[in-house]
Amino acid sequence: MKNILKNITLFTLFSSIMACSLVEPVDENLLGEDRLNFDPAFAEGVLLNAYEGLVNQLYFNDAATDDAVNNFLSSYRRMATGEWNAQNPFTNKWGMYEQVLYANKFITLIDQVEWKRDEETNELFKQRLYGEAVALRALRHFWILQEHGGRGVSGQLLGIPYISEFLEFDADFNTPRLGFEETVSRIVADFDEALEYLPMDYDGDLAKRPSRYNDTNDDTYQFVFGKDQDGRINGRIIKAFKAKLYLLAASPAFMNGQGGYYQEAADLLAELLNDIGGLGGLDPNGYYNFYEFPVGTRNFPEVLWRSNASTDMTWVESQHFPPSLNGEGRLNPSQNLVEAFPMLDGFPFSEAHPDYNPENPFENRDMRLQRYILYNGNDLNGRVVSITNDGGVDGIDQISQRSTRSGYYLKKLLDQKVVISADGSISSSEKINVYVRYTDLFLMLAEAANELGGPDQMVGGMSARNIIGAIRQRAGIGLDNSDAYLSSISSQEDMRNLIRNERRLELCFEGHRLYDLRRWNLFDQTPDAKGLQFDGTNYESFTVEPRLYNANANYAPIPQNEVVRFNLIEQNQGW
C-alpha cells in the first residue's frame, strides 16, 4: 500500500490530486498492498474509487453564467466577476486524473485476483471489470477535455495528456498535451474497446450480449451481467458519452463542423433514441425533479444513468429554500433566464406580445417557468412566497447573503414537501444524482441534425423540428398541434437559436449551460445578470452583477502550478 500512496503523492504532474489511500487499510495494516492481489473485495475498491465524484446535476455552476447569481461569495460568483485565472481555475477538472490513476491501477490488478472459483465465471468477471475500468478512464478524460481542451499559446487546438497506464513514482511526468483530435481519438478508442466487453444493459438479456461472450454458458453470463450490476457503466451509457464527445468536437469552439463529428454524434444518438422508441420514447412527464420516483421503482424513462437513492441530500433544500422557509436562498435565477421562457403560445417573450400583463409578467407564460423558478406569488407546495421591496424576509437584499439578489429563488430540483424547522431540523427526502438523462440526448440530436442539414434534416426518422416540437408540446406549448412559432422557422440559424434556448430551459440548473456556452464560442459574450424588483405596484428590471469574461473565456485555463512545474504542458491562450 505504501508504494501506491507514493505513486499518488509523487504524481506531481497532476498536483491537484490529494494524497489519499486507494482503499481503507485494515486496523493493524498488516497485510499491506499485497492484499490487493488476493482479496477481491479489497481489489475492487480501487475500481470503485474510479466511480467516485461523477459529474451530476447538483453542481449549481449557473451562477457563473447569465442564468443565475449567488447571494454569497461563491467560487462561481468570483469567477463571473473577474477573478477567474490560472491561479484560480474555479471549474478545474484536472484533479480527475486521480480517478484515471485508480482505473489504470485496477487494470494492473485484474489478472492477479481470483474473483470467483469457477474458471469461466472468474474469466467473465475479469472481462467485465476490465471493460468498466477502460470506460471510466475514457469518461474521466472526456470531462477533463471538456474543461481544459482549447487553443494553446501556440495557436494550435490542443487536447490534454492521455494517461493510459499506471505511472510509477519515478516515471517521467512532464507529459505534453495531445492535439485536440488525437485526444478525441484516444477517448473514442477506449470507449470502443470497453464496448467489446460490456453489454448495453445489465439485464442478462442473451440477445444483447457482446459477441465475445456468444460461446459462454448462458447461466454464467446472466450471473455476471445481470441486474445485480445495475448502476455500473454499460454500453448504453458509453454510447451516450461518446455522442457527447463527438458533439463537443463538432462545436464552434473546436472543429466548427469539420471532421464529420456532427454526423458521428447524430448517428449514435439516433441509434440510442430509436432503441427506446424514438420520439415515442420521450418521457411524457418530463421528469426533472429527481426525488419524484414512480411508486415501487427507482427507474423511470427519463434517466439513463443515476446514483443509488440517498436520504442524505436535504442540503439541497437547506441551501436553496427561501429564508421564509428557513433556507439560505443561495442560487438566485436571473431575469435573463426568466425572459428566455416564451409566452404560452410559444412565441418569444416580449412586452409587446398581446398576452403580456405588466401587472403580472409571469402570466400567459411557458408553464416551465412556474415549475422551475420561484417568483413573487409563486409557491412551494402551497407555501406562497412574497418577493417585494418592502423589507419582507424574502425580499431583495444585496448584503445579507441569505435573501435573493435577483428577485427570484430556485424551485426546480427542490423537494417541495421538505420542511425545515426554525431550529434547523429538517424532514427527510430521498433523491438520486443523475449523470445522463434522455431529454439531453434528444436535444443533442436536434442540434446535430440541424447542423447537418437544417430544421427538417432527418436522422433516424427524427429531425430538429419534430424533436423540438415534441419537447415544447410536452411543456404545454402547441397542445392543439399549432405551435405557430416553430412552424414559422425555416432557416438553420433560427432553428439553431431555438434549440439553444430549449437546452437552456429544459436543462437549467443542471450544470449544462456553462459548457454549452463555451463550446458554442459564446461564453466571452455572456451578458450581465439582471434581476426584477417589485415595489408592490410595478415590476422593474435592474442589473444585479456584471459578467467580466474576456476573449479567452471559452477555453478554461490549465492550473498554473502544472504549467510552472512542467514545461511541456502548454497553457491555453490568454491565461
Quick take:
With 575 residues, the chain is mainly alpha-helical. The chain is built from 18 helices and twelve strands.
Structural write-up:
By secondary structure, the protein is mainly alpha-helical. The chain has a domain at 93-233: Serine Threonine Protein Phosphatase 5, Tetratricopeptide repeat (Alpha Horseshoe), CATH 1.25.40. It has 18 helices and 12 strands. A two-stranded antiparallel ribbon has the order 1-5. A hairpin with a 4-residue loop joins strand 11 and strand 12. Helix 5 packs parallel to helix 8 (235-250), helix 6 (180-197) runs antiparallel to helix 8 and helix 9 (261-274) packs across helix 13. The radius of gyration is 25 Å and the shape is globular. The model is unreliable at 1-30 (pLDDT under 50). It is found in: Cell outer membrane. Residues 59-212 form the SusD-like N-terminal domain. This is SusD/RagB family lipoprotein.
- The portion of residues forming beta strands comes to 5-15%
Instruction: Give the termini separation.
Output: 38 Å
Q: At the third CATH level, what is the topology name of the domain at 93-233?
A: Serine Threonine Protein Phosphatase 5, Tetratricopeptide repeat
Radius of gyration (CA) equals 25 Å
**Outline type:** globular
Second-tier CATH architecture of the domain at 93-233: Alpha Horseshoe
CATH class wording of the domain at 93-233: Mainly Alpha
Number of strands: 12
Helix content range of the residues, please?
Answer: 25-40%
Largest sheet: 2 strands, antiparallel
Domain RagB/SusD: 301-575
Keywords: Cell outer membrane, Lipoprotein, Membrane, Signal
Domain SusD-like N-terminal: 59-212
Pfam family, one: SusD-like_3
